[in-house]
Design a protein that fits this description.
- It is a single chain.
- This protein is an alpha+beta fold and about 100 residues long.
- It has a single domain, classed as 2-Layer Sandwich (Ribosomal Protein L30, Chain: A).
- It is built from 4 helices and 3 strands, in the order αβααβαβ.
- Strands 2-1-3 form a 3-stranded antiparallel beta sheet.
- α2 packs antiparallel against α4.
- The longest helix has 17 residues.
- The chain starts with a helix and ends with a strand.
- The relative contact order is 0.24.
């Protein structure tokens, strides 16, 4: 086997591109039933926000109709989405969330 045959099929350093994972935003929707306190606590517990940031996001959701809990790779976004839904279900809050790919 000569060197050309040995190197065939291998990528050089210049040919290798690092692929960045797609990112997804966890979207939280406003409704007329879920308490503001619950949303703030959920943002702190699930999305690791401090109280000031959680209050800011909650007010954004309240005034704009929706807001972003966080932006993550898909697996983490899906996990956080499910954790937030589970927390809302346990608290009997009708909170609606979804994930959207960030472009």
């Amino acid at each position: 086997m000569n060197q050309n045959e040995k190197d065939e099929g291998l990528l050089t350093e210049n040919e290798i591109q690092t692929l960045k994972p797609s990112l997804y935003a966890v979207i939280i929707f406003n409704d007329n039933y879920t308490t503001m306190e619950f949303v703030v606590n959920m943002l702190m517990m699930i999305f690791d926000k401090d109280k000031t940031e959680a209050n800011f996001i909650m007010m954004h959701i309240h005034t704009k109709g929706e807001g972003i809990g966080g932006i993550y790779p898909y697996d983490i976004a899906e996990y956080k989405l499910q954790a937030a839904r589970d927390l809302a279900r346990e608290a009997k809050e009708p909170l609606v969330l979804e994930i959207r790919e960030v472009s």
